[in-house]
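Input record (one chain):
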Amino acid sequence: MGQSCKGCSHQGGMRALAAFLAASACAAFAQYPERPVRLIVPQAAGSATDTVARILAAEIQGPFGQTVVVEDRPGGALTIGLDLVAKSAPDGYTIGMGPVGALAITRHMVAKLPYDIERDFQPIALVTRGHLLLAVSPSLPVNSVQELVEYAKKYPGKLMNASSSNGSPGHVGGELFKYMTGIDMVHIPYKGGAMAINDLIAGHVQVMFESLNSISTFARSGKVKALAVSGPRRSPAFPNLPTIAEAGVPGYDASTWSGVIGPAGLPRPVVDKLNGAINKAIVSPVFKARFGEIGDEPAGGTPEEFAETIRRDSAKWAEVVKRSGAKID
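The corresponding structure, as predicted from the sequence alone:
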């Protein structure tokens, strides 16, 4: 049997039956997708992950030739949506968004997950990489990261650090900042970033680490004071803003990312077709323009590279969560 297709291979010396079965599996998935695909988002409509999903779904439908339906399933510290993906049939018709919070952070804060991330999911492709924006209320008399640290040390425990939820990137990004600067701020979790941003604007809370996707509009309008971005390099959308590391906290890095995952057991031809469609979609002019405005960047790459990103960041945030003692009931 000399026939083969992308993702299906067999080593020399395998029996003819094994080769036949491999070729048959390729043929079975050659026409995938033959019906609409569900893209599960483990967060609410309007969230940063939901925004990524909707832009991606619109762009992926061209190369796919099928509708990609975005379905928001928030709740349970991101576990409800992910559990739906984990327990779906491994046929490529139910896939999900896997943000850094769900795959690398809350796993260390929830006592018992209904799934095992390494065992029950197949990483497909990283979609975006981005930053948190360190922003403060306009009423707070600080204009730089160093001034924020000095103010927090002068008034320990006075500053309230809002986040979109317990276990969010903004939550642990703030905990990392506290640990690395030796300051004391009180974490105030909200049920969504929009409410937290509104209270930051009003001065009810003073500090927030929030995704550029959610807060960039308010930073550009001056409704919040932007001090720095959280990644290892500056954001293309805010080139004049330093990184937190540049601004006086050497080594600080709280990058964000979001990718697409499927259930374990997804056939490799399906994984490869999804991966190829995603990598093509994220370099489209529309995708690049939308995320250029936000400040996040298209990522892409192989399933194996995405899996390594999950492993690396999971280990990092496990240490931060352990030091902070943060848990989700």
